[in-house]
């Protein structure tokens, strides 16, 4: 199977997404969504940003490579009675099922960054955005000291080297790479804007329990534990991640975890 799809169909990302709803809503609130705006949420998961966009009146399509996440998104939209929000399977590197210029706004929060062939991703998102529209990406930043960048860094250090030609998803968190990729899709540098923002993970339990959720349900962490176990290094990985989750927790309440994580907010004017 396509390893990119297999990674995200492993585990159950909805369990992690549950801790990201507050920041998802806050981010969407800042996007100037008006009734009827046509929005594509790419790598949408179960709709952390698609659902609040639809609640603000946008006409939302969520596209994700993971079939269970697409089903979870459609179930959420149905439960909430959101007839203006639907989800379908697709690959950010090849959106052939979507027509040119069909969206006012393409959003991809920690989504398209995980697709292979980043130059194709940039071309595809630009192609489906109408002239005068916008693309907004949220991307984790390599070397950043906060939670997700550190989880991915630590996980990589316990995993076998990636196959030849693999391009790290984290390069979407480097401004020069983002500019180069959109330039390849015909977007001039001055149309790409950057900001550093924060997503907060809110979890009703201890940091160790949040780590247990990542260990059981988050594909990249699951793969790292599989590799570490095979190497007899599971305890070492567990202890390194326990230290990270505890050190990053800012919640003053004992049975609640709150972890802010920095990301690169990219806005592209098409
Ligand atoms: C970290 S999750 C973020 C999900 C969602 N955007 C959110 O904020 O909760 C990454 C998502 O990207 C999706 N994804 C990974 N590779 C993809 C690809 N090539 N095309 C479309 N979606 C992809 C995964 O299935 C997963 O739902």
Offer a quick outline of the entry:
This protein is of the alpha/beta class and 270 residues long.
Architecture blueprint of SSEs:
Elements: H1 3-9, H2 14-17, H3 21-29, E1 38-42, H4 50-55, E2 59-64, H5 67-79, E3 85-89, E4 103-109, H6 118-128, E5 129-140, H7 147-158, H8 175-184, E6 192-203, H9 207-217, H10 219-230, H11 234-248, E7 257-269
Parallel strand pairs: 1-2, 1-4, 2-3, 4-5
Antiparallel strand pairs: 5-7, 6-7
Helix pairs in contact: 7-10, 7-11, 9-10, 9-11, 10-11
Bound molecules: S-adenosylmethionine.
S-adenosylmethionine binds at residues 4, 8, 13, 17, 20, 24, 43-45, 48-49, 64-66, 69, 91-93, 109-111, 114-115.
Main beta-sheet strand count, sense and barrel state: 7 strands, mixed
Distinct ligand kinds: S-adenosylmethionine
Q: How many beta strands in the DSSP annotation?
A: 7
Spatial shape:
globular
Strand content: 15-25%
Global mean pLDDT:
96
Helix content: 40-55%
N-to-C terminal Cα separation, in Å?
34 Å
Strand order, largest beta sheet: 3-2-1-4-5-7-6
Class by helix and strand content?
alpha/beta
Q: What count of helical segments does DSSP give?
A: 11
Rg over CA atoms, rounded to whole Å, is: 18 Å
Low-confidence stretches: none
SSE string: HHHEHEHEEHEHHEHHHE
Q: How does this structure look, described?
A:
With 270 residues, the protein is of the alpha/beta class. The protein contains eleven helices and seven strands. The protein has helices at residues 3-9, 14-17, 21-29, 50-55, 67-79, 118-128, 147-158, 175-184, 207-217, 219-230, 234-248; strands spanning 38-42, 59-64, 85-89, 103-109, 129-140, 192-203, 257-269. It has a seven-stranded mixed β-sheet, sandwiched between helices. The longest helix has 15 residues, at 234-248. The protein is globular. Bound molecules: S-adenosylmethionine. The site of S-adenosylmethionine has 23 residues, from α1. S-adenosylmethionine binds next to α1.
